[in-house]
Write a structure and sequence with these properties.
Chain lengths: ~240, ~120
């Protein structure tokens, strides 16, 4: 059975990268894919690029932040009845050639969510900075402590979810640090979360949304959120 | 006891306070419903200025040495509660604002497809 798949591409000031990202997606023919670009109030010429090249996009009226931008994509997927939604960065870090690897466990009903991971095997040569890896390890350790399950690449923004989770995310998605928090919340509520090795590139252009000092702040915040989340309700597995 | 100086000073402040609240209500910058709380606040202030004895007794009960300290403490506490409440409301409104912006984006996308 063919499932409707949507790629959600949040982008903020990506006039240099977005065209290449879309070109790669259009050239990918293994499985049929739809995509939607979420322009999160970019201040550069991103909107112009999107309009001129006939790209399917949602233009948010002002900058909402990464969490809310991605959630817009999930709402779009929910309203249009997609079976699977894949988060995909607009900056060229993610490799489209691994999308079937991410999507397949969901198609087969073996997982509710699949995370494209840099650390599961040696598929990815790019592993991020030492400081950030340390942060990821701490969060990963805390998630293991609180849920008893192992997730290695907790902050990966390359992940696919099934229809149930699309609905949950459309209605309830954290605006700050969405990836690790939702990963943990889903694990905690007995969703099947899988991790597969994918390739990631270093950023080609533009600026990462997380810098060096911020990553400490990030780590602290995520840990706090995870501990508070223990007492908070999230969507349960049907 | 409150010194007579402080009493006069507080009385003047309270008068100004009432003028500000009344003006806001009359110009419909504040719904009458929520103005009740602010009026109660003012009435409480008047009562304490007129009968500081209540405050003296109360401060000796909770162990605060001077009544001006008690007034200050109560004021800070009130502000803290108010600002917390405002922050809570701000976050609720922010969420609604974001949801609206998201829907606007999705509707614009649908409209452009129909053209």
């Amino acid at each position: 059975m063919n499932k409707k798949i949507l790629i959600i591409i949040p982008c903020y000031n990506e006039e240099e990268n977005i065209l290449k990202t879309i070109k790669n997606i259009n050239e990918y023919k293994k499985i049929p894919l739809d995509y939607v670009v979420i322009n999160d109030g970019s201040t550069d010429d991103t909107l112009k690029v999107l309009k001129e090249n006939d790209i399917n996009f949602i233009d948010l009226p002002f900058n909402l932040g990464i969490g809310a931008a991605v959630q817009t994509g999930y709402k779009y997927a929910y309203y249009n009845g997609y079976d699977i939604a894949v988060q995909f960065d607009g900056d060229g870090q993610h490799d489209i050639n691994y999308i079937d690897k991410i999507v397949h466990p969901i198609m087969d009903g073996k997982a509710d969510m699949v995370i494209g991971s840099r650390f599961v095997d040696d598929t990815s040569s790019f592993k991020s900075t030492k400081a950030r890896q340390f942060g990821i390890n701490v969060i990963s350790g805390l998630i293991k402590l609180c849920s008893g399950k192992i997730l290695k690449d907790v902050t990966s923004g390359y992940r696919a979810v099934n229809k149930d989770i699309i609905e949950i995310f459309a209605n309830n998605y954290p605006f700050d640090f969405p990836e690790p928090i939702t990963n943990y919340a889903l694990l905690k509520n007995n969703f099947k979360v899988d991790e597969v090795g994918v390739n990631m590139y270093e950023r080609v252009g533009g600026q990462s949304s997380i810098n060096y000092l911020k990553s400490i702040y990030y780590m602290f915040n995520v840990c706090l959120s995870i501990m508070i989340l223990n007492y908070k309700k999230f969507g349960r597995r049907k | 006891m409150l010194s007579i100086k402080l009493q006069i000073f507080l009385a003047i402040v309270t008068v100004f306070y009432f003028i500000i609240v009344l003006r806001a209500v009359r110009k419909e910058k504040m719904p009458i419903k929520s103005s009740v709380l602010w009026f109660l606040f003012g009435i409480l202030m008047i009562l304490f200025i007129l009968f500081p004895k209540v405050l003296v007794d109360f401060s000796s009960i909770v162990g605060i040495k001077t009544i001006s300290n008690l007034v200050l403490f109560a004021g800070v506490m009130c502000l803290l509660i108010l600002s917390f409440d405002l922050y809570r409301i701000y976050n609720i409104e922010k969420k609604k604002n974001i949801a609206l912006a998201q829907e606007v984006g999705i509707i614009k996308n649908e409209l452009s497809k129909k053209k």
